[in-house]
Amino acid sequence: MQAAVTSAIDDSALAWKKCQAAAAHAILAAFPPLDRARTPTYCCDITLDYRQEEIGEGRVCIDNFCRATIAFADLPQDAVAEAIEASFGIMWFDGPDGVSLPLSGVGPGVYTYDDETTLADYEIDFDDHGRAALSFTDIPVPDAATILHTLTTALSREDVPSD
After folding, report:
1. pTM greater than the 0.85 cutoff
2. Nearest in space to 37 (alpha carbons), one of 121, 53, 55, 27
3. What is the pLDDT of residues 27-42, one digit of tens each?
4. Any idea where the domains of the chain sit in the sequence?
């Protein structure tokens, strides 16, 4: 292989690693409870996780395309509703009957949004006890960081420790 091609491949690999490192930095800054996962690292090179009694537990994976997957469980429903509406606006999520609803004050059920522009999928499951689970996949890192930052802010309004 020509030296110029080898050098270009090396440059590309280095840029990729920098992209992933920058993505992890943005996510960690946006949601302070997260930390680098010990082992296993699941499906992605970069996995971040947390577990705190007041705000549940979760994981963020940053894949090889610098897109994030967020899987959180046992979060306060009101904080999730506030964060999502601050990130997206109201009435972006379809409720259990397929009708778009504001998330503040909704009952139990699964609420979804499929972003046709970025191809990200968002699912929120509100339970009967005022808790929520998030399952967001293929999210551009800037969007994931925005959502996590608004969640941190919403949790702070509820007097729930977030770090």
Report:
1. yes
2. 27
3. 999 999 999 988 666 6
4. 3-157
